Structures are given as C-alpha cells and as structure tokens.
Predict the structure.
Amino acid sequence: MILETIIETVGREVFEKGAEHLAGEKNKLNGLNNKSPDFIHGIPKIIDAAGLHIAEQMQLWQQLVVLLPCYATWMYAFTFYTEELSEELRPKFLQEIARILDYSSDAVASAAQYALWVDFFENSETVGLSWREISGNLRTDAGRMRLLDVTGPVPYELKADFYAQMAENESMQDRLIHAFLCCLREVYGKANREHMRHLMGKLSSRQAHEEYGAVMKALS
C-alpha cells in the first residue's frame, strides 16, 4: 500500500509526530497550522514513482489532507487536482471536501478552508465546479458554517442563493454577517451590495452582533 510506503520512506516516527502536531497545534491566524513538516514536500515524488492509477492517486491525496492537515499538503493536492485529475473524477474529489467540512475536526477542516479560499475559489478556472459540488453536497450546519467563512472570493452570482438560504436559518445569521464583511473588505472579496442590503434587511434582529454595524456602514 502506497501510504505505508510513504510512511516507511519518511520514517514512521517522523510521520506520526508530524501528523500529531498538525492534528493538534494550530496557528491563530486563519486557523492554520504554524509549521508544516518538511517531509511533506517529498511526498509527490514518492507518489509519482509508485505508478498509481489516477483514481488511486486521488484517494491517496484525500487521505493525506486528513492525515497531514496543512496548506503544504493541500498545495500539492490542488496541483494534482488541476494538472492530473480528469474532469470525470473532479466532482468526486470535491465531494470529499464537502465531507471534510461537514464532519472533520477543526484542525482538518481549517486547512481545507484555507485551501478553498486561496486556491479553489480564487482561481477563476476552478471556482465554478468547486462551488457547485461543495455547496451542493454539504449535509450539516457545521459544514455550511465552515463554507460561509470562505465564500469571500466566490463570484457573487454563484453564492447568492446560498446566502439567501443562510439568511433564513437563524443559526447561520451571525456567520452570514461575518461572511458579508469579508466580501466587502477582503482584496479578492466578491460582493453585490444591492442583494446584500436586501438580505441584511432580514437580519435586523441581529443588530447587536458586533459586525452588523460595520456591514451596514460598508453597504451605505
């Protein structure tokens, strides 16, 4: 099994310590792990040398982003997604990201969230399919909250219906206000002020939220 080959090549103790570190210790900025183990950068060569079928490579990267949750792992996974993975298999890869958002620990999910923002969603060539497959396959409010946090760079016409649905869900409303602020303030944020003002009208009961006033001011 190629995962075992990777572990043995890296060294089991080194691999396990790296995985333990990434699973537990997070950088406060963006919820990212502060340090990525150096051995991650050698993993793509090990995989290339194994001569795996493309579907097997996909399954392996899906395992690795959970075992080693940090941007370094996701960076290589995204490169695999864009350069190697067939159009037929891409939806399956993205549906697994939805599952990560729904059910994984904060450490695993936060690494996925960051990758979504800076790679899958900021890239105009990948954002459309990524958004449709991930948003359309979420099953839990936890997953929807995690997705809301990284909707900033998604073109507004793609996320407008999702925002409208979240505005009707009381448990999501505070998170939606935060998402709006990100859309309005972040360099790559995508906003439709008219639609956002309409939705904020439905959130008047949340005026005590610390970011409510900032959103309204930015929309004025």
Notes: The chain has two domains: 1-140, 151-220. Residues 151-220 form one domain. Residues 27-31 have pLDDT under 50 and may be disordered.
